[in-house]
Amino acid sequence: MDPNQAASVAFYILSALFFDNFVIVFVVTVLLSALDFWVVKNVSGRILVGLRWWNEINDLGESVWRFESLDQESLARMNKKDSWLFWWTLYLTAAIWVALAIVSLIKFQADYLLVVGVCLTLSVANIIGFTKCRKDAKQKIQQFATQTIASRLAIAKCGLIVTSDFKMNPTELPCISFVLD
Does the keyword Transmembrane apply (predicted)? Predict the structure, then answer.
Protein backbone atom coordinates (compact mmCIF):
# COMPACT_ATOMS: atom_id res chain seq x y z
CA MET A 1 0.00 0.00 0.00
CA ASP A 2 1.23 3.47 -0.88
CA PRO A 3 2.49 5.38 2.20
CA ASN A 4 -0.08 8.13 1.63
CA GLN A 5 -2.89 5.59 1.35
CA ALA A 6 -1.72 3.89 4.50
CA ALA A 7 -1.37 7.25 6.28
CA SER A 8 -4.94 8.36 5.61
CA VAL A 9 -6.44 4.98 6.53
CA ALA A 10 -4.22 4.59 9.61
CA PHE A 11 -4.92 8.10 10.83
CA TYR A 12 -8.67 7.59 10.43
CA ILE A 13 -8.60 4.29 12.35
CA LEU A 14 -6.21 5.43 15.07
CA SER A 15 -7.86 8.83 15.51
CA ALA A 16 -10.65 7.18 17.50
CA LEU A 17 -8.05 6.27 20.14
CA PHE A 18 -6.35 9.67 20.39
CA PHE A 19 -8.79 12.40 19.35
CA ASP A 20 -12.27 13.30 20.40
CA ASN A 21 -12.49 16.19 17.95
CA PHE A 22 -14.31 15.34 14.70
CA VAL A 23 -12.98 18.43 12.91
CA ILE A 24 -9.35 17.34 13.39
CA VAL A 25 -10.16 13.83 12.18
CA PHE A 26 -12.05 15.18 9.16
CA VAL A 27 -9.45 17.74 8.09
CA VAL A 28 -6.36 15.55 8.54
CA THR A 29 -7.92 12.43 6.99
CA VAL A 30 -9.27 14.31 3.97
CA LEU A 31 -5.97 16.16 3.47
CA LEU A 32 -4.02 12.88 3.60
CA SER A 33 -6.48 11.27 1.22
CA ALA A 34 -6.31 14.24 -1.18
CA LEU A 35 -2.51 14.07 -1.10
CA ASP A 36 -2.74 10.35 -1.85
CA PHE A 37 -5.13 11.04 -4.74
CA TRP A 38 -2.74 13.53 -6.31
CA VAL A 39 0.38 11.39 -5.82
CA VAL A 40 -1.25 8.24 -7.21
CA LYS A 41 -2.77 10.11 -10.16
CA ASN A 42 0.29 12.13 -11.16
CA VAL A 43 3.34 10.28 -9.84
CA SER A 44 2.78 6.63 -8.90
CA GLY A 45 0.59 5.88 -11.91
CA ARG A 46 3.16 7.35 -14.25
CA ILE A 47 6.12 5.53 -12.67
CA LEU A 48 4.56 2.14 -11.89
CA VAL A 49 2.19 1.59 -14.83
CA GLY A 50 3.10 4.34 -17.30
CA LEU A 51 -0.38 5.91 -17.22
CA ARG A 52 -1.69 9.37 -16.41
CA TRP A 53 -5.17 10.82 -16.70
CA TRP A 54 -7.12 13.97 -16.11
CA ASN A 55 -10.57 15.33 -16.77
CA GLU A 56 -11.30 18.71 -18.32
CA ILE A 57 -14.43 20.71 -18.99
CA ASN A 58 -14.45 22.00 -22.58
CA ASP A 59 -15.96 25.26 -23.85
CA LEU A 60 -19.36 23.61 -24.28
CA GLY A 61 -19.40 22.58 -20.61
CA GLU A 62 -18.88 18.89 -21.39
CA SER A 63 -16.57 16.63 -19.43
CA VAL A 64 -13.62 15.41 -21.52
CA TRP A 65 -11.28 12.65 -20.34
CA ARG A 66 -7.60 12.97 -21.33
CA PHE A 67 -5.21 10.04 -21.16
CA GLU A 68 -1.44 9.65 -21.45
CA SER A 69 0.49 6.45 -21.65
CA LEU A 70 4.04 5.50 -22.43
CA ASP A 71 4.83 4.05 -25.84
CA GLN A 72 4.60 0.30 -26.38
CA GLU A 73 8.33 -0.35 -25.89
CA SER A 74 8.43 1.52 -22.59
CA LEU A 75 5.27 -0.23 -21.37
CA ALA A 76 6.84 -3.60 -22.21
CA ARG A 77 9.85 -2.72 -20.02
CA MET A 78 7.68 -1.86 -17.01
CA ASN A 79 8.12 -4.12 -14.01
CA LYS A 80 5.12 -6.48 -13.84
CA LYS A 81 5.36 -6.72 -10.04
CA ASP A 82 5.16 -2.93 -9.71
CA SER A 83 2.15 -2.90 -11.98
CA TRP A 84 0.49 -5.68 -10.00
CA LEU A 85 1.19 -3.85 -6.72
CA PHE A 86 -0.20 -0.60 -8.11
CA TRP A 87 -3.51 -2.12 -9.23
CA TRP A 88 -4.01 -4.19 -6.08
CA THR A 89 -3.37 -1.25 -3.74
CA LEU A 90 -5.69 0.91 -5.81
CA TYR A 91 -8.54 -1.58 -5.33
CA LEU A 92 -7.55 -2.55 -1.78
CA THR A 93 -7.71 1.05 -0.58
CA ALA A 94 -11.23 1.44 -1.96
CA ALA A 95 -12.26 -1.85 -0.32
CA ILE A 96 -10.91 -0.66 3.04
CA TRP A 97 -12.89 2.61 2.74
CA VAL A 98 -16.03 0.62 1.91
CA ALA A 99 -15.48 -1.54 5.01
CA LEU A 100 -15.00 1.59 7.13
CA ALA A 101 -18.19 3.04 5.65
CA ILE A 102 -20.07 -0.08 6.73
CA VAL A 103 -18.64 0.24 10.24
CA SER A 104 -19.75 3.91 10.36
CA LEU A 105 -23.24 2.88 9.25
CA ILE A 106 -23.44 0.15 11.89
CA LYS A 107 -22.31 2.59 14.60
CA PHE A 108 -24.75 5.26 13.34
CA GLN A 109 -21.90 7.77 12.90
CA ALA A 110 -23.14 9.93 10.03
CA ASP A 111 -20.35 12.48 10.52
CA TYR A 112 -17.63 9.85 10.17
CA LEU A 113 -19.51 8.42 7.18
CA LEU A 114 -18.96 11.80 5.54
CA VAL A 115 -15.18 11.48 6.03
CA VAL A 116 -15.20 7.96 4.61
CA GLY A 117 -17.42 9.10 1.72
CA VAL A 118 -14.96 11.80 0.68
CA CYS A 119 -12.00 9.41 0.89
CA LEU A 120 -13.88 6.67 -0.96
CA THR A 121 -14.85 9.14 -3.70
CA LEU A 122 -11.20 10.10 -4.24
CA SER A 123 -10.16 6.46 -4.31
CA VAL A 124 -12.89 5.47 -6.77
CA ALA A 125 -12.04 8.46 -8.99
CA ASN A 126 -8.50 7.10 -9.35
CA ILE A 127 -9.83 3.62 -10.11
CA ILE A 128 -12.14 4.95 -12.82
CA GLY A 129 -9.48 7.23 -14.29
CA PHE A 130 -6.77 4.59 -14.46
CA THR A 131 -9.15 1.90 -15.75
CA LYS A 132 -10.27 4.18 -18.58
CA CYS A 133 -6.66 5.14 -19.23
CA ARG A 134 -5.58 1.49 -19.41
CA LYS A 135 -8.39 0.71 -21.87
CA ASP A 136 -7.37 3.72 -23.99
CA ALA A 137 -3.73 2.59 -23.97
CA LYS A 138 -4.72 -0.94 -25.02
CA GLN A 139 -6.87 0.47 -27.82
CA LYS A 140 -3.95 2.60 -29.08
CA ILE A 141 -1.65 -0.44 -29.02
CA GLN A 142 -4.22 -2.44 -31.00
CA GLN A 143 -4.57 0.39 -33.53
CA PHE A 144 -0.79 0.58 -33.89
CA ALA A 145 -0.58 -3.19 -34.41
CA THR A 146 -3.38 -3.10 -37.00
CA GLN A 147 -1.71 -0.24 -38.87
CA THR A 148 1.64 -2.02 -38.80
CA ILE A 149 0.15 -5.24 -40.17
CA ALA A 150 -1.78 -3.35 -42.85
CA SER A 151 1.32 -1.43 -43.94
CA ARG A 152 3.34 -4.67 -44.09
CA LEU A 153 0.62 -6.22 -46.27
CA ALA A 154 0.65 -3.16 -48.53
CA ILE A 155 4.43 -3.41 -48.88
CA ALA A 156 4.17 -7.13 -49.61
CA LYS A 157 1.50 -6.40 -52.24
CA CYS A 158 3.74 -3.81 -53.87
CA GLY A 159 6.59 -6.30 -53.90
CA LEU A 160 4.39 -8.79 -55.75
CA ILE A 161 3.47 -6.16 -58.34
CA VAL A 162 7.13 -5.35 -58.96
CA THR A 163 8.10 -8.99 -59.36
CA SER A 164 5.15 -9.84 -61.61
CA ASP A 165 5.51 -6.80 -63.92
CA PHE A 166 9.11 -6.31 -64.95
CA LYS A 167 8.32 -3.27 -67.13
CA MET A 168 7.07 -1.21 -64.16
CA ASN A 169 9.39 1.43 -62.78
CA PRO A 170 9.84 0.78 -59.00
CA THR A 171 9.54 4.52 -58.26
CA GLU A 172 6.04 4.58 -59.78
CA LEU A 173 4.43 1.86 -57.71
CA PRO A 174 0.69 2.37 -57.28
CA CYS A 175 0.89 1.07 -53.71
CA ILE A 176 3.12 3.89 -52.52
CA SER A 177 0.14 6.25 -52.50
CA PHE A 178 -1.62 3.94 -50.04
CA VAL A 179 -1.22 5.65 -46.66
CA LEU A 180 -2.75 4.51 -43.36
CA ASP A 181 -3.75 7.11 -40.82
Answer: yes
Residue 90 gets which letter from DSSP?
H
d(CA 84, CA 49): 9
- As a whole number of angstroms, the distance between CA 93 and CA 7 comes to 11
**Hey, where are the domains in the chain?**
3-143
| Neighbour-count burial of 12, counting CB atoms closer than 10 A to its CB (0-12 exposed, 13-18 middle, 19+ buried) | buried
Hey, how many other C-beta atoms are within 10 angstroms of the C-beta on 9? 22
Q: pLDDT digit string (tens) for 104-142? A: 999 898 889 999 999 999 999 889 888 887 776 666 656
With 0-12 / 13-18 / 19 or more C-beta atoms within 10 angstroms meaning exposed / middle / buried, residue 60 is exposed
- Give pLDDT tens digits for 28-50: 999 999 999 998 888 888 888 88
The span from the CA of 8 to the CA of 23, in Å, is: 15
- Candidates 24, 41, 10; CA nearest to 123 is 41
The three-point CA angle 47-136-89 to 5° equals: 45
* Span 53-74, average pLDDT: 81
Question: Among candidates 52, 45, 117, 122, which has minimal Cα distance to 86?
Answer: 45
